Amino acid sequence: MAGLINDFLNWLLSWVGGSVAHESLAGYVLAGLVHVALILVLVATSALIFIWLERKISGRIQDRLGPTRVGGKFGWLQTLADGLKLLTKEDLLPGGADGMLFKIAPYISFCASIGAFIAIPFAGGHYPWIAQHLNVGVFFVLAVLGLEVFGVILAGYASASKWSLFGAMREAAQVVSYEVPLGMCVVVPVLIAGSMDLVVIGDRQAGLFTNWLVFHDPFTFITFWVYFTCATASVNRAPFDLAEAESELVAGFHTEYSGLRWSFFFMAEYGSMFSVSILAAILFLGGWHGPIPITGSLGLTAENGPFLGYLGQLLGLGNVLLKGTIGVCVMIWIRWTLPRLRIDQVMATCLKYCTPIAAVMFLGATYWHYRFPEKVFFGLADAPAAVYDVNEGWAGDEPAAAFDESQLVLNPTTKETL
Amino acid sequence: MFELPLANLLTEPVGVAHYVTVGAIMFVCGVLCMATKRNALGILMGIELVLNGANLNFIAFGSPYLRSDANSLGLDGQLIALFVIVLAAAEAAVALAIALNFYNNYGTIDVDRADQLQG
Amino acid sequence: MDSIYWPSFFFFFFGILACVFAVGVLVSRNIVRMAFYLVLSLAATSGLFFLAGAEFVGAMQLMIYVGGTMVLLVFGVMLTSQERFVDMKTWAGDWVKAFLAGGALLFVLIYAAFSVPAWRGIERAEAEALPVAQTATPLGMGLVGARVDKLDPAVEAPRDGMSGYLLPFEIVSVHLLVVLVGAAYLARAKRKITARIE
Hints:
Strand content of chain B: under 5%
Order of helices and strands of chain B: HHH
Distance between the termini of chain B: 47 Å
Oligomer: heterotrimer
Structural class of chain B: mainly alpha
Helix content of chain A: 55-70%
């Protein structure tokens, strides 16, 4: 993309007689900025929409209407109005607070929450729509999501208030404990697809919805529900939200935050909810592949030209966003239906239920995949032809160079070879 | 004296020596932390810095982008770094348990107060 | 002038961050700030790992070191610093001795690092021609005993040391279990003895 931007700049500058090298600085910086802007726009807009969605859904569950005044009958500009109000609030700093840590804590949470989107693909194929195509995408996303707890701890400590500190410690213990079953649940689709690359896992599920990994075997089916539970606990949503429990801790770790700083925490929370939902969609629910493969039959593939290929990828993006939104709606639905768990119940759920179930499901899925490696949909259909084979790379690429034995130096001092 | 390759730092690929320098700085900071801090947890942070400096060295010696000779460490560097990370986490857990015990018994985390065995 | 080689630029970015925050850990006097600077230093080190092609180790550094060990450390800090912002000063003499020894060590290490010509770096054309290394699968296979990155050559001599890391993997697993049990036992809730009055 940097090359394209540089060529475009060259064309622009040619009108005034200047020029820019093909590998110049401007292209790289602009390409990076474009990626950053796309991700920020996605996360911020999704946070806006989800906050409105939460108020509407919670209203309907509680037999009332939710916002109905700002922006027409459905109140969809309500979040914008709330954002404007938050921007104009007074910026407080508590008396005994550690100034630097207090100010930087919301940004850490926000950065960790958005950083997870760097490695998440929104459309796949040979040129996936992904900001950085990592070989270890799944691992990276999990690792960065686990960093969000730092913002919480620092916020709780730096607020110089015991309610904040208690809330922060509880939340840190909860998030760190739930990373264990979360990781084990994530390993199951990784082992079925054979790679930690999210594009490969998504492309493994091409075709009919019977290829989706959630229907691969009964163990993976149960793993999906355990993953969803652990993901809900990991982003501190009810029924696991005692870090922000209004009835017990005032507002938990963000008691002393107001205005724009508080809204960063809020955006971080909705961003994390969205990213774990999209991760669930890619790992288990087919990602950018819809239930019925129509991109091939409609001719929206890359072989038919770049514009049609772009439309096909756009359809994939729509699929991913739709599945992520459904996941977030389910989390909202659960929040307003189930009562809150106590901290000892939360820890018991993690250590006594989620972790053993995840471990048993891991064993079962390993055995099933060993016994029936080419079957999908509970063993009733055959797997699609792999797009990416772990040993051979992408289908259609040349094989990697074989190991050259003349390169092997036996003794660096005498330089003797085979 | 040896020549410092400063002229083309940003246009040429960095080598193992640059990684080893960063690792050395982290290592020395860690050693100084262990030597000068009175807080037991500060000493533990020094240990973490030392282990990170060593990890940087291992990764640098095993990276194909930094060395071109065929007998570089290869994946061994990364595997050893993996084991170092895991063992460092285990050692941090035990060290924290010891520090908590010390705090509960002495009421302070200052290691200069632990002089009961001093001759 | 040649165009900037971006991996070098990012190496200096992450490297300078890691060093600055490591020095910050050393000179800071507030224990929570020390923990914070250490987190940032370790995160910058993880960036350096990604740049060197060790993506799996970089992600593992973020998850285990930053996400796990540092959270543990911060918990420890909060449990043991009941007096807010307690400040334990080191004597000036200690600082002087430490800086002398540390400075000498640093000089020796950097001199040694730059004195090997092969360690100065490879040619730019060669670096740009290198393929992106896929290290996750060979790492995993190495941990279960099969070194797929060093397939058996015909000669016996280099075959030594080519077995995988299965035994260390198992030993580390048992070690972690032992540490888990030991640390939980050591840190169990006990009757608290009040501070000695000297």
